[in-house]
Specification:
By secondary structure, this protein is an alpha/beta fold. The chain has a single domain, classed as FAD/NAD(P)-binding domain. The protein is built from seven helices and nine strands; from the N terminus they run E-H-E-E-H-H-E-E-E-E-E-E-H-H-H-H. Strand 7 and strand 8 form a beta hairpin. The longest helix is centred in the last third of the chain and has 18 residues.
Length: about 210
């Protein structure tokens, strides 16, 4: 009998785990990947929206287009999690798991900075990038203040794990130079490009 793996959150971590389980343990597990959204987008795509190069709908990658053997995707909102019983309750039902993975990531709290919501703009979100795009289109002159309002913890665990595994560097830069003298892409960039090729390949095969 196949083991049931429930993954809560279909961001990069949830998608990567579901993909690896599908590719390596498809005969032994069935995966339920739960997320309240119907799509996701790469973070750097927000710059294309901010600069008016692409529309928000053009950068969305819909979960329905990502087909993996043994993986089902219910678009539901999680209302409760019982880690001891490995149970997830949503607005549509209940899921009991043999293995439970929580990959919800972090959320933003603009209200934590007094005055920011009333007079500031952000492009951490796709909607925020769209609003700032419209404002910049009408901006001709003046003072622009750019600020980091808090510690960027959103990807801290992933980065921390990468730093623990990687030996200390003795040079600065995004990569190393090969025999040709050109800078080779960093592991982070290689991994990001590989994920983009994987998602695009899956969409093209549909």
């Amino acid at each position: 009998m196949k083991k049931h793996v429930v993954i809560v959150g279909a961001g990069f971590a949830g998608l990567e785990l579901a993909t690896r389980l599908s590719e390596s343990l498809a005969d032994g597990v069935r995966v339920t990947l739960i997320d309240r959204n119907d799509s996701f987008f790469f973070g750097f795509s927000k710059l294309d929206v901010l600069l008016g190069r692409r529309a928000p709908t053009d950068v969305l990658l819909h979960y329905r287009d990502i087909a993996k053997a043994g993986v089902e995707f219910p678009q539901e909102t999680v209302t409760a999690i019982d880690p001891a019983r490995r149970r997830v309750i949503t607005d549509e039902g209940c899921y009991d798991a043999d293995f439970l993975a929580i990959a919800l990531g972090a959320d933003y709290d603009p209200a934590a900075t007094p005055g920011f919501q009333g007079g500031g703009f952000e492009y951490y979100s796709l909607a925020g990038a769209e609003r700032l795009r419209d404002v910049l289109a009408e901006f001709s002159a003046g003072t622009v203040l750019i600020s980091v309002l808090g510690h960027p913890f959103k990807c801290s665990l992933r980065c921390a794990g990468r730093w623990r595994r990687r030996p200390a560097r003795t040079h600065r830069g995004s990569g190393s130079r090969g025999s040709s003298g050109r800078r080779a892409p960093s592991r982070q960039r290689q991994g990001r490009n590989a994920r983009r090729r994987r998602v695009r390949g899956e969409r093209g095969s549909r």
